[in-house]
Write a structure and sequence with these properties.
alpha/beta
Protein backbone atom coordinates (compact mmCIF):
# COMPACT_ATOMS: atom_id res chain seq x y z
CA UNK A 1 0.00 0.00 0.00
CA UNK A 2 1.19 3.53 -0.73
CA UNK A 3 2.34 5.54 2.33
CA UNK A 4 -0.28 7.59 4.16
CA UNK A 5 0.36 11.35 3.91
CA UNK A 6 0.89 13.06 7.26
CA UNK A 7 -1.65 15.72 6.25
CA UNK A 8 -4.29 12.99 5.96
CA UNK A 9 -4.16 12.47 9.74
CA UNK A 10 -5.57 15.95 10.34
CA UNK A 11 -8.29 15.32 7.77
CA UNK A 12 -9.15 11.92 9.24
CA UNK A 13 -9.59 13.17 12.81
CA UNK A 14 -11.71 16.08 11.56
CA UNK A 15 -13.79 13.88 9.23
CA UNK A 16 -12.82 10.48 7.82
CA UNK A 17 -15.02 11.13 4.77
CA UNK A 18 -13.10 14.34 4.07
CA UNK A 19 -9.85 12.41 4.22
CA UNK A 20 -11.17 9.84 1.74
CA UNK A 21 -12.48 12.49 -0.66
CA UNK A 22 -9.10 14.23 -0.71
CA UNK A 23 -6.66 11.33 -0.59
CA UNK A 24 -8.70 8.51 -2.16
CA UNK A 25 -11.01 10.23 -4.66
CA UNK A 26 -8.53 13.07 -5.29
CA UNK A 27 -11.13 15.79 -4.85
CA UNK A 28 -10.23 19.27 -3.68
CA UNK A 29 -11.82 22.72 -3.52
CA UNK A 30 -10.46 26.02 -2.29
CA UNK A 31 -12.15 28.38 0.10
CA UNK A 32 -10.95 31.31 2.20
CA UNK A 33 -9.64 29.00 4.90
CA UNK A 34 -7.57 26.81 2.55
CA UNK A 35 -6.18 29.90 0.78
CA UNK A 36 -5.07 31.40 4.09
CA UNK A 37 -3.39 28.11 4.95
CA UNK A 38 -1.49 28.11 1.65
CA UNK A 39 -0.13 31.60 2.32
CA UNK A 40 0.89 30.64 5.85
CA UNK A 41 2.87 27.59 4.64
CA UNK A 42 4.64 29.50 1.86
CA UNK A 43 7.60 30.45 4.07
CA UNK A 44 8.09 26.96 5.47
CA UNK A 45 7.92 25.42 1.99
CA UNK A 46 11.12 27.26 1.00
CA UNK A 47 13.08 24.92 3.24
CA UNK A 48 16.49 25.55 4.74
CA UNK A 49 18.17 25.32 8.12
CA UNK A 50 19.74 27.73 10.58
CA UNK A 51 20.85 27.86 14.18
CA UNK A 52 19.30 30.33 16.63
CA UNK A 53 20.50 30.55 20.24
CA UNK A 54 21.89 27.07 20.03
CA UNK A 55 18.71 25.57 18.54
CA UNK A 56 19.00 24.04 15.07
CA UNK A 57 15.89 24.96 13.07
CA UNK A 58 15.05 22.98 9.92
CA UNK A 59 12.21 24.06 7.59
CA UNK A 60 10.33 21.60 5.33
CA UNK A 61 11.95 18.53 6.82
CA UNK A 62 10.91 15.26 5.08
CA UNK A 63 9.54 12.70 7.55
CA UNK A 64 8.62 9.03 7.34
CA UNK A 65 7.62 6.10 9.52
CA UNK A 66 8.03 2.56 8.23
CA UNK A 67 6.08 1.13 11.19
CA UNK A 68 3.02 3.30 10.54
CA UNK A 69 3.51 3.65 6.75
CA UNK A 70 3.52 7.44 7.02
CA UNK A 71 5.29 10.05 4.92
CA UNK A 72 5.22 13.82 4.65
CA UNK A 73 6.98 17.06 5.44
CA UNK A 74 7.18 18.96 8.73
CA UNK A 75 6.80 22.75 8.50
CA UNK A 76 9.54 23.25 11.08
CA UNK A 77 11.53 21.02 13.40
CA UNK A 78 13.66 22.59 16.11
CA UNK A 79 16.47 20.37 17.40
CA UNK A 80 17.03 21.49 20.95
CA UNK A 81 20.47 20.73 22.47
CA UNK A 82 20.81 18.69 25.65
CA UNK A 83 23.50 16.95 27.68
CA UNK A 84 23.03 13.69 25.74
CA UNK A 85 22.24 15.09 22.28
CA UNK A 86 19.48 16.90 20.40
CA UNK A 87 15.75 16.49 21.03
CA UNK A 88 13.36 17.15 18.13
CA UNK A 89 10.53 19.64 18.65
CA UNK A 90 8.11 19.77 15.66
CA UNK A 91 6.20 22.98 14.94
CA UNK A 92 3.17 23.01 12.63
CA UNK A 93 1.81 26.27 11.18
CA UNK A 94 -1.97 26.64 11.19
CA UNK A 95 -4.35 29.40 10.14
CA UNK A 96 -7.00 30.68 12.52
CA UNK A 97 -6.85 29.87 16.21
CA UNK A 98 -6.84 26.81 18.50
CA UNK A 99 -9.79 24.51 17.90
CA UNK A 100 -12.07 22.38 20.07
CA UNK A 101 -11.26 19.16 18.21
CA UNK A 102 -7.83 17.47 18.24
CA UNK A 103 -7.20 17.16 14.49
CA UNK A 104 -4.29 19.61 14.46
CA UNK A 105 -2.74 17.97 17.52
CA UNK A 106 -2.97 14.50 15.96
CA UNK A 107 -1.21 15.67 12.79
CA UNK A 108 1.57 17.14 14.93
CA UNK A 109 1.75 13.94 17.00
CA UNK A 110 2.12 11.90 13.80
CA UNK A 111 5.16 14.02 12.95
CA UNK A 112 6.58 13.25 16.40
CA UNK A 113 6.07 9.51 15.87
CA UNK A 114 8.01 9.77 12.62
CA UNK A 115 10.79 11.74 14.29
CA UNK A 116 11.06 9.19 17.10
CA UNK A 117 11.49 6.38 14.59
CA UNK A 118 13.97 8.38 12.50
CA UNK A 119 16.13 9.65 15.36
CA UNK A 120 15.72 6.86 17.89
CA UNK A 121 14.98 9.45 20.56
CA UNK A 122 11.82 10.37 22.45
CA UNK A 123 9.88 13.43 21.24
CA UNK A 124 7.81 14.48 24.28
CA UNK A 125 6.18 17.63 22.88
CA UNK A 126 5.81 20.01 19.97
CA UNK A 127 3.88 23.17 19.14
CA UNK A 128 1.10 24.51 16.91
CA UNK A 129 1.58 28.09 15.70
CA UNK A 130 -1.73 29.78 14.90
CA UNK A 131 -1.69 32.76 12.54
CA UNK A 132 -4.69 34.51 14.10
CA UNK A 133 -3.27 34.56 17.62
CA UNK A 134 0.38 34.65 16.47
CA UNK A 135 1.25 32.41 19.36
CA UNK A 136 2.50 28.89 19.84
CA UNK A 137 0.43 26.32 21.68
CA UNK A 138 2.66 23.65 23.20
CA UNK A 139 1.24 20.14 22.70
CA UNK A 140 2.42 17.32 25.00
CA UNK A 141 2.41 13.96 23.24
CA UNK A 142 0.72 12.03 26.02
CA UNK A 143 -0.69 8.50 25.85
CA UNK A 144 -4.20 9.70 24.93
CA UNK A 145 -3.03 11.76 21.95
CA UNK A 146 -0.69 9.03 20.77
CA UNK A 147 -3.54 6.50 20.89
CA UNK A 148 -5.84 8.85 18.94
CA UNK A 149 -3.15 9.40 16.32
CA UNK A 150 -2.35 5.73 15.84
CA UNK A 151 -6.05 4.83 15.69
CA UNK A 152 -6.53 7.46 12.99
CA UNK A 153 -3.68 5.89 11.02
CA UNK A 154 -5.35 2.48 11.38
CA UNK A 155 -8.71 3.91 10.25
CA UNK A 156 -7.12 5.58 7.24
CA UNK A 157 -5.30 2.42 6.24
CA UNK A 158 -8.60 0.51 6.35
CA UNK A 159 -10.34 3.13 4.19
CA UNK A 160 -7.53 3.18 1.63
CA UNK A 161 -7.47 -0.62 1.51
CA UNK A 162 -11.24 -0.90 1.04
CA UNK A 163 -11.33 1.96 -1.54
CA UNK A 164 -14.70 2.91 -0.01
CA UNK A 165 -15.53 6.47 1.08
CA UNK A 166 -17.10 6.58 4.58
CA UNK A 167 -20.30 8.49 5.46
CA UNK A 168 -20.10 12.12 6.66
CA UNK A 169 -19.00 13.03 10.15
CA UNK A 170 -21.77 13.18 12.80
CA UNK A 171 -20.34 16.58 13.85
CA UNK A 172 -22.47 18.67 11.49
CA UNK A 173 -20.89 21.97 12.57
CA UNK A 174 -17.64 20.87 10.93
CA UNK A 175 -19.29 20.69 7.51
CA UNK A 176 -19.86 24.46 7.43
CA UNK A 177 -16.13 25.24 7.40
CA UNK A 178 -15.23 22.44 4.97
CA UNK A 179 -14.20 23.49 1.46
CA UNK A 180 -15.51 20.17 0.14
CA UNK A 181 -19.11 20.60 1.31
CA UNK A 182 -20.45 21.04 -2.23
CA UNK A 183 -18.59 17.95 -3.42
CA UNK A 184 -19.41 15.92 -0.32
CA UNK A 185 -23.11 16.92 -0.11
CA UNK A 186 -23.56 15.48 3.40
CA UNK A 187 -27.27 16.35 3.49
CA UNK A 188 -28.07 14.08 0.53
CA UNK A 189 -26.08 11.19 1.98
CA UNK A 190 -28.35 11.11 5.01
CA UNK A 191 -31.57 10.89 2.99
CA UNK A 192 -33.09 7.43 2.49
CA UNK A 193 -32.89 6.56 -1.20
CA UNK A 194 -36.48 5.26 -1.34
CA UNK A 195 -37.92 8.49 0.10
CA UNK A 196 -35.91 10.56 -2.39
CA UNK A 197 -37.04 8.34 -5.30
CA UNK A 198 -40.70 8.51 -4.26
CA UNK A 199 -40.52 12.28 -3.91
CA UNK A 200 -38.91 12.72 -7.32
CA UNK A 201 -41.47 10.37 -8.91
CA UNK A 202 -44.37 12.25 -7.31
CA UNK A 203 -42.97 15.54 -8.57
CA UNK A 204 -42.60 14.15 -12.11
CA UNK A 205 -46.20 12.88 -12.16
CA UNK A 206 -47.73 16.05 -10.71
Amino acid sequence: MEPIPLSAIQHAVYCLRQAALIHLERLWAENRFTAEGDVLHAVADKGGARRTRGVRRVLSLPLASQRLNLTGVADLVEFQPGPDGETAFPVEYKRGKPKLHRADEAQLCAQALCLEEMTGRSVPEGALFYAQTKRRVVVPFDATLRALTEQSVTDLAAVFASRATPPPTPHKSRCKACSLIDLCRPETHARPVKQWRDRMLAKALA
